Automatic annotation (TrEMBL):
UniProt-recorded name of the protein: Two-component system, LytT family, sensor kinase
SMART domains: HATPase_c
InterPro entries from the UniProt entry: Bact_2-comp_sensor_kinase (IPR050640), GAF (IPR003018), HATPase_C_sf (IPR036890), HATPase_dom (IPR003594), Sig_transdc_His_kin_internal (IPR010559)
CC terms in the record's Gene Ontology section: membrane
Domain Histidine kinase/HSP90-like ATPase: 289-398
């Protein structure tokens, strides 16, 4: 078996750890298939390093857990080319890879010292304890893993010899691992923010729509019991979807079904005053979309197109296939609004938007930007006495 730290052992161990196959690649070939110039070697070393880092990154983006540490530690040892590597948190060792089993019992204490100081810690000489006869391990380099200024764990490396180069290398790898954990924390914070936005949207929807829908259903109980029963089933279908357990995404088909139930209930409420059309390209029905992102826009159109008018009003929903995106518009022919009013609604102005759909529009706009980026917010076209049209784009590819 080739020794630790050699270029061939690094690539060989990488393939063995990642796939468990291609065993023929573990041993060095006596003669290279292709002749290579000496200046090709740094490029190959860079590729191997980046490839190993890319293999470890997805696990680390899940956060510092026992499962993620176990998946990443093998790649980290290959990256460093040392005898053993341990990843720990404040509770102790999460994962260990390599030889030097005699140091497993000491790894938690080594990590604790680094966590307490918040600085890299070298264990060598009299401070290094090993009871195994003939053990080649001579020391450890332990570096804290820092997230948002807090030491949340430690990367410990054990080898037969320590050097200033190894200390710098472990420090840089730990900094890279910390960066991946920072991204994991950011992803988690973004997800929590999205869940909070969704809860706020549900809380806004419930007292307004539920009261109006139930009042409408009650009005049909004596005059048209069959219609009341159908509306009650539509209401149950709508609320089961809208108030279901937390989820980030659904399909466009499911979201449109929710919109359809909503419009049927509002049609029962407004009668012939409400006209609506929904036109959808069938190619986009299966694409993933943010959960409950379209109904608030349709609700806003109903309020401004019919609820605020004395005569009839029309709501139009159009979903078009635009290659890598779906282009969606929700339009009403109501009284419209000034550009300043539109900006206040998207900004979530609590003094002017609350109770008039503003919180819902601002919520959807913020969620779209959080998920897809700043270029994917709502675009409002409106003029006084000329109706309102809300445009948005949704990429077909799932963002996570």
């Amino acid at each position: 078996m080739v020794g630790y730290g050699s270029p061939m052992s690094t690539s060989g161990w990488m393939l063995l750890c990642v796939t468990g196959t291609f065993l023929g690649f573990i041993l060095p070939r006596r003669r290279p298939v292709l002749s290579r110039r000496p200046d090709d070697l740094p490029d190959e070393a860079t590729f191997v390093t980046l490839h190993i880092a890319a293999m470890a990154a997805p696990s680390l983006r899940a956060g510092l857990t026992r499962d993620s540490a176990r998946k990443a530690v093998c790649h980290l040892r290959i990256l460093l080319g040392t005898s053993a590597v341990a990843v720990s948190d404040a509770g102790g060792v999460l994962a260990w890879d390599g030889g030097a089993d005699c140091q497993r019992a000491h790894a938690s204490e080594h990590a604790r010292i680094a966590l307490a100081s918040g600085r890299p810690h070298v264990v060598i000489g009299d401070a290094f304890t090993c009871d195994a006869p003939g053990c080649p391990i001579r020391g450890a380099v332990v570096v804290p893993l820092v997230v948002d200024g807090r030491a949340v764990g430690a990367l410990a490396v054990y080898d037969t010899a320590l050097s200033a180069v190894l200390v710098r290398t472990v420090t840089e790898v730990a900094r890279w691992v910390s960066g991946q954990l920072e991204l994991a924390e950011f992803d988690s914070s973004r997800r929590r923010a999205m869940e909070a936005e969704l809860r706020a949207l549900r809380a806004q929807m419930s007292p307004h729509f539920v009261y109006n829908a139930l009042t409408t259903i009650v009005s049909f109980v004596r005059t048209d019991p069959e219609r009341a029963r159908e509306l009650l089933m539509d209401f149950a279908d709508f609320t089961r979807y809208a108030l279901s357990g937390a989820r980030d995404f659904t399909t466009l088909a499911e979201e449109l079904h929710c919109v359809d139930r909503y419009l049927l209930l509002e049609r029962a409420r407004f009668g012939d005053r409400l006209r609506f059309t929904v036109r959808v390209a069938p190619e986009v029905l299966s694409m993933p979309v943010p959960f409950l992102f379209l109904q608030p826009l349709v609700e806003n159109a109903v309020k401004h197109g019919v609820g605020a008018a004395t005569g009839p009003g029309e709501v139009r929903v159009v979903v078009e296939d635009a290659g890598s995106e779906a282009h969606i518009s929700v339009e009403d022919d109501g009284r419209g609004m000034s550009p300043e009013r539109a900006r206040s609604l998207l900004g979530g102005d609590s003094r002017r938007g609350r109770g008039e759909g503003g919180i819902g529009l601002a919520n959807v706009d913020a969620r779209l930007r959080q998920i897809y980026g700043e270029d994917y917010g709502l675009v409002v076209e409106s003029e006084l006495d000329a109706g309102t049209k809300i445009n948005l784009r949704v990429p077909k590819i799932h963002p996570w």
